[in-house]
Design goal:
Chains A, B: Pathway: Amino-acid biosynthesis. 2 copies of one chain form a homodimer. By secondary structure, chain A is an alpha/beta fold. Chain A has 2 domains: 125 residues, Aspartate Aminotransferase, domain 1 (Alpha-Beta Complex); 220 residues, Aspartate Aminotransferase, domain 2 (3-Layer(aba) Sandwich). The first copy, chain A, is built from 14 helices and 12 strands. Chain A has a 7-stranded mixed β-sheet with strand order 2-8-7-6-5-3-4, sandwiched between helices. Chain A has a 3-stranded antiparallel β-sheet with strand order 9-10-12. In chain A, strand 3, helix 6 and strand 4 form a beta-alpha-beta unit. In chain A, helix 12 packs across helix 13. The longest helix of chain A has 24 residues. Chain A is globular, with a radius of gyration of 21 Å. The interface between A and B is large, with 85 and 85 residues.
Chain lengths: 378, 378
Amino acid sequence: MRLTPLAASLPASVPFVGPEAQERARGATFRARLGANESVFGPSPKAIAAMREAAAMAWRYGDPEAHDLRAAIAAHHGVAPDNVMPGQGIDGLLGTLVRLLVAPGTPVVTSRGAYPTFNYHVTGYGGVLHMAPYRDDAEDPEALTALARETGAPLVYLANPDNPMGSWLSAGRITEMIAALPGDCLLILDEAYADFAPEGSVPALDVADPRVIRMRTFSKAHGLAGLRVGYALGHPEMIAAFDRVRDHFGLGIVAQAGARAALADRDWLASVVARVGEARARIGAIAAENGLRALPSATNFVAVDCGRDGDFARAVLRGLIERGVFVRMPFVAPQDRCVRISAGTPEDLDVLAEALPEALRAAGAAGGGGPRSALRGA
Amino acid sequence: MRLTPLAASLPASVPFVGPEAQERARGATFRARLGANESVFGPSPKAIAAMREAAAMAWRYGDPEAHDLRAAIAAHHGVAPDNVMPGQGIDGLLGTLVRLLVAPGTPVVTSRGAYPTFNYHVTGYGGVLHMAPYRDDAEDPEALTALARETGAPLVYLANPDNPMGSWLSAGRITEMIAALPGDCLLILDEAYADFAPEGSVPALDVADPRVIRMRTFSKAHGLAGLRVGYALGHPEMIAAFDRVRDHFGLGIVAQAGARAALADRDWLASVVARVGEARARIGAIAAENGLRALPSATNFVAVDCGRDGDFARAVLRGLIERGVFVRMPFVAPQDRCVRISAGTPEDLDVLAEALPEALRAAGAAGGGGPRSALRGA
């Protein structure tokens, strides 16, 4: 096996360990699955029906042009089909986009602690990551822009709303950032959580601007993480570039059918957004009951500040996982003082409410000193 | 948009135009869909049931380790899970494998007229294709081996049974080829059609041999082309290398569930293989009725020799498409004297039986001279 020098230099790595691997290690399934920002409220019943109907037709390859899905997405956003590139989730689209723009040595800008799968793709194509720290638990567009200018990067990544913190920037700040970027630098605006974002935080689409490509997904509010469909929105030249390297038959017939039906069901989307809002409030209340602070969120998850350092939060996370609550947390300091809890059903959050005080107690005991005093001091 | 020099050098291309695009151009759907070697007999009812059940759970990401599917495939083949890498169809797996082994300038060996999507991936990563011609309408392992030796290629592609000709090599010739390959050269043995292959044409699995990686799919005999699941079988080190660059969450929960159920339903597979055999015989009979020769096939399609040159076969192909029969054909001479017709239902083949004489007549007229005399002369 003669790996390329680049491939040989890469570790075998996994951006995220799946909850299933943790369940196999624990020997028990999770009681509440709140770690991957999935939509526990499920897909639209109409999307389920469409997938079920398509299942019998799964002997057919999906349309490699995804014509109908593309047209539906274009109509939904008021753009042309050539502004839309559907793909296998934002993960898949990011991989293709990075492949198009990143060669060994290419500088790429992102935030320290932002989406690890983007970094995985950049590293996988030999790019060199330059990272700006978060500011006030949010991505810092001015720092990213400065870093893009300084490094000459052709590509900058920013998620709005942000993952893992749940914070968001105003549409105005995003627009200012775009205006300030070097003219030949492309901003990937990852809007996986845009469906949950408050008014005024999602800039108007301007597909005539070649400096921005926006990523949307059916994995979050649409509840179709396990179907693998997302799409990019952008300038026709950027969108057409995907055709140079993409896996044309990668989006199957079941995926295309499910996504189309999900997109059309706006009532379901609204009901999910409402239930996510309730869940966020409940997570905030549970945090407060335990002396913790929930950070404001524009997403379907809440970063809960555990009030001490990363080691303490990691101990809390372990405690939650041991008690059957799948959660994740930010990777870098100081954001790693938080655990990240996805919106759950009322039943899921009952489990959280039961497990969190125990996990805090255990973490406090492990770290020495009672959790109460520690938390009060935070 | 600052594409990498490699990406900038690539054309926007599609290895295959989908039948849906042709249907949109025609303004009518095809009466018989016999061009993509899909399984018109559909997936196992058990696979359909599994996909339908999984549809409601599509809010969950699929297990990134695909643990259960991998274990089931391993058990089926009598190998270990670390010999198995599931992925998004053979197309997806080929892309990942090429990425691992091919850098700009890397020589890669395949047959002229073999699978275009493999070539697309090689070109897409900057590799340089070296092609051996077919011999007697089959891939030529000795010529491929010689070319691998001559070019120092780290990668050789061979499909057995072959697409687009339907021909096959004996297990013995494949084994001899492997033995004759340079020790550091990897053979991709594309066995997409292995489920249809006659006894003695599929070599025994030897996953201790690092020189071979075998590709299997759920898209053909299992009737799940629109679900996007295939797998690689090989040495643990080669299999583990996929973890360096693969899209870990790319195989969704619906795909994993459908594939597992399909793999378990051996009765369905046997019934499909039997019906494909009947369809091949019927295609042979229809060809003979029209004075044409069907080539022997070890697959779910038949290459029908139209008895003249590529221009004539292309005219026949056009005639079939105009009459609502979706078919494809080999791209290079002299194999392009054939049209490639996938196994159809009896109803599909009734449509073919009706359309073929008309298409031949039209092609003969277009080419000047009656088709009968032309065919008699072939």
